[in-house]
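Ligand-bound model needed. magnesium ion.
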Amino acid sequence: MHRLIKEHIVPRFKSRRKDVEIPLSFLADSAVVNEIAFTTDSYTVKPIFFPGGDIGRLSISGTVNDLAVIGAKPIAISCALILEEGFPLKKLDELLESMEKTAEEAGVDVVTGDTKVMERGKLEEIVINTAGIGIRNPLLEKNLKKVVEGDGRSLNSRWLDPRNIRPGDKVIVSGPIGEHAMSIMIARGELGFEAPNIKSDAAPLNHLIDEILEVGGIVAAKDPTRGGLASLLNEWSEVTKIGMIIEEEKIPVSEGVRAASEILGIDPLELANEGKVVLAAPPEIARDVLEVLRSHPLGKKAEIIGEFTNEYEGVVVKTEIGGLRYLPMPLGDPVPRIC
Ligand code: MG
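Prediction:
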């Protein structure tokens, strides 16, 4: 997938406009054109209903989160539905209700859309595509000002952007990882065990991120979706060309996800999340950010898990028994159609 995108898709589409501030080639969560943040995502998750959510909730949350993590305030969403002929109306109504509820939760409007039907057997049940636009978050200026006043760094970007990260910045995760992907795998019923306490974390994070920006001082944010925390940390290390040391024992993982991962031989660090955010913040501010996170229902179990450092290249994990290991970029998803 990485090669397909980098070698075939991205080189085709060049930026002609001068006001493209975050272009396609950055492969960021959202693009920024003429002060407008813009993102799109297609959802193919199987099954379409799962513990903690459904494809409808996922489709709104994912797009809202991709806007929020670059420092945009999500405003409007499109809803494109591709349905398999004969898809039950009752299920469709349930999914649409879930989309509307999630949009209300996030404070965004669904303002445009498209509906297509494909022949039975040519598509499994339903595919949803959502695109979203956002405006520059009014709280962003105050947030970045606090960073600059703190250590006098010069910023490479006016947005929440890994290019603003410096050695010494702390890495914070908003809560236990791996819950979304694990809940999907278990919901498929192919693993031979059940785990009723593992639920998807799918949720819009824009209000949580607003509260963090209000306190101020974060330099970058990203949602650890496909490829999980492992992919996110490697991407940040690649973009910044700064190494990272992560303390394994600080990474929040629920008992259920830890146990299920052990049984399946999967690293929870590679599992997708749909309601978590990873933040980078200067050391003198990280504690305040952590406090704000922990006072919010979606960030109760937040932790500072490590920091950027020039001592290492790439992402190094200090294991619970004190050894060091490299955390590689995940080669692929443990299972397809997780989101
Ligand atoms: Mg994202």
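Residues 89-106 form the longest helix (18 residues).
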